């Protein structure tokens, strides 16, 4: 029996969709047939992306650090397309800074967006799936290889992503009998707006040179896994973290 990553009939809400991986996720889910609600703070960028994707995309302004925004975002997604059955909790900031110099406010912001925001997004999605009687719900939370690797200069970010991995496992267990699969992806280093300036510096180039393949990943490296985890083909996969890092942690 063959498997398909066809997503026609699915409605997905994607956070952090105004740039980087979130933009990529919106495009590939829509190309596979899903209706996509694109959530982020920069609504002008979302509107441009939704216009490029077409009528199966909607721009939704939301700040995942605020539960009221998340609730309003799901309301807007439902108004546009009906109940959401697929969620990608992707919004994040890098929170870069050495532990002795990063401010309390920067730590709080990083944890609020990367960890609290991911949990609240997943929670709101699950609550609505249960309320609407959705079967085959899918939630994917984006973590990072920094969840497992010591990452000087990224203490708040790494801690937040380690929290995302454990949150994903715990939520998968809580919602298993509701038929909601929850999984996490821990990508390696991919050049995006969040890290572009760093990898153009001499230390950044040295970091790349230390990787076994001496390169950064391309954004397309997550495509197949994202489509799999959002599709019916992943029915028996939940509570799992997938490290996709081009061998960077070897």
UniProtKB/TrEMBL annotation:
Similarity comment: Belongs to the short-chain dehydrogenases/reductases (SDR) family.
Keyword entries, A-Z: Oxidoreductase
Lineage of producing organism: Bacteria, Pseudomonadati, Pseudomonadota, Alphaproteobacteria, Sphingomonadales
Molecular-function annotations in GO: oxidoreductase activity, acting on the CH-OH group of donors, NAD or NADP as acceptor
Oxidoreductase listed as a keyword: yes
Protein name: NAD(P)-dependent dehydrogenase, short-chain alcohol dehydrogenase family
Organism superkingdom: Bacteria
